[in-house]
Amino acid sequence: MSTAKVLVVAGGGGGGGGWGGGGAGGYQYNSAFTVTAQAYTVTVGARGQRGDSSNGAGGNGGNSVFSTITANGGGGGGGGANNGSGGGCGGGGGLFADGGSGSQGGNGGDSDDSSRGGGGGGASSAGNGTGGNGTSNSITGTATYYAGGGGGTPSSGTLAGGLGGGGTGRGDGSGGDGTNGLGGGGGGGDSSSGYGGYGGSGVVIVAYTTTEFNHTGGNDTGTNGSETWVKFTSSGTLTLTDSASGPANLKSWNGLAKASVKTINGVAIASVKSINGVE
Fold this sequence. Notes:
Order of helices and strands: EEEEEEEEEEEEEEEEEE
Strand content: 25-35%
Mean pLDDT: 91
Shape: elongated
Number of strands: 18
Number of helices: 0
Distance between the termini: 21 Å
């Protein structure tokens, strides 16, 4: 039985155009997910829409999916005096309003006074005024934070987004966008002169044992020790083919032990580069 590491992060919620920061996309990680040689449909969640000025609420991010693993889109930040939306991580509450609940991460922050809105929840912590922090993962060999919440809108100045691509909340303009490919929530914006920030789009990364499979698909790929990782920043298909069918791992051919096989289809076995298209 072959296993792979799988990281699935949904799209972050958009910040409110007045007060609430967007919640980060849901964060799902499995270090030993069973995989076989087949084609897997990969869905990468879209960014949540920003809230417009005049206290518009931010939109939820889109879900990301790999096989049976689904990460839920982040909740949008509350606009005006409205609560933040629930999602993978909850959106921050509008002025004097509550944050949304996080199903796969932190809740959005509440707003208890007129000085700020609530920050969006992150994968590792709830929002406060600032966005909740995301979670660090080294599936590619480089430690990277994913799924940080967006900062809420302050009465003046800025409130930071969480580690993992959370956008900055701004009291005197538009909120910062969440980072695409990290699932960060958008920052809250000024209700009178700015917009909320867009959420960041999600990501799916699969790392399989290099000697077990070959692959096609993905937007980026690389190696980390004994593993090959494949990153999807847009939806597509990951096709795994069993490398055990290649010449290097050939055990027998037409019932004969490999040591007894001198040629395959008239070609010396030492010169065979692939069998049925598989190296």
